[in-house]
Design brief:
The chain has 4 helices and 6 strands. Helix 1 packs across helix 4. The chain has one domain. The chain has a 6-stranded mixed beta sheet with strand order 2-1-3-4-5-6, sandwiched between helices. The longest helix has 15 residues. By secondary structure, it is of the alpha/beta class. Helices cover about 35% and strands about 25% of the residues. The two termini are about 15 Å apart.
């Protein structure tokens, strides 16, 4: 089963909406609000979760700095409201399912780009 960690840039409402739809989704809790991106990646790895974020700095961490990840969904939306974020994430989850693992997805209204990433072994 896929598990997700929703970064604070994507919002608590997205995490709760995903939970309501039956997905295993957690929001960065109070202890880690404001944490640096590398810490967020470590939490996602430790909990075996795919990160959902609006923060493009994760791309630099993963590709330039060669950090590990289980997977990332980066939202780059023109209409960046909770309803559109949820609709786009649901579309990606339903379309790609388990293929989200080990990939970096850049999702916008005009399309989806997918790249492989270095997966941290369990």
């Amino acid at each position: 089963m896929l598990k997700f960690l929703v970064d604070e840039s994507s919002g608590k409402k997205l995490a709760s909406s995903l939970k309501e739809k039956g997905y295993d989704a957690e929001y960065i809790d109070k202890e880690f609000l404001g944490a640096d991106d590398e810490t967020i990646l470590k939490i996602a790895i430790k909990e075996d979760r795919i990160l959902i974020t609006n923060d493009k700095d994760f791309g630099e961490l993963i590709y330039k700095n060669k950090k590990h990840s289980r997977g990332v969904i980066l939202l780059r939306l023109n209409v960046n409201n909770p309803e559109n974020r949820l609709n786009m994430i649901l579309y990606v989850i339903e379309r790609f399912g388990e293929r989200l693992m080990g990939k970096f997805f850049v999702v916008s209204e005009s399309g989806i780009r997918i790249r492989s990433i270095n997966i941290f072994p369990i």
